[in-house]
Amino acid sequence: MEVLKVSTNSTPKSVAGALAAVLRDKGTAELQAVGAGAVNQAVKAIAIARGFVAPNGIDLVCIPAFAEIEIDGEERTAIKFIVEPR
Predict the structure, then answer these.
(1) Are the CB atoms for 4 and 29 separated by under 8 Å?
(2) In degrees to the nearest 10, what's the CA dihedral of 48, 19, 15, 54?
(3) CB-CB contact of 29 with 53 (8 Å)
(4) Cα-only R_g, the chain
(5) Domain tally, the chain
(6) Residue 6 is part of which domain span?
(7) To the nearest whole number, what is the mean pLDDT of the chain?
(8) pLDDT confidence of 71, banded at 50, 70, 90?
């Protein structure tokens, strides 16, 4: 599964375009975000991506979960969003 990492500085429309491309290519994707700002950008990107793929008859669903990741040798808790067609 393709993992897209989202930060506070990520542009939601750009992330949405990448997400839509991965979904069309592989069928499912995962977004990872650490921190409130990054989670906010990820949720906006998922909403925008739904609009991008809707004309193709694809209805997206999102499954949120926690993930333990390592950043600079430090364990951090991330929110991961598994995005797939309904």
Answers:
(1) yes
(2) -20
(3) no
(4) 12
(5) 1
(6) 2-85
(7) 93
(8) confident
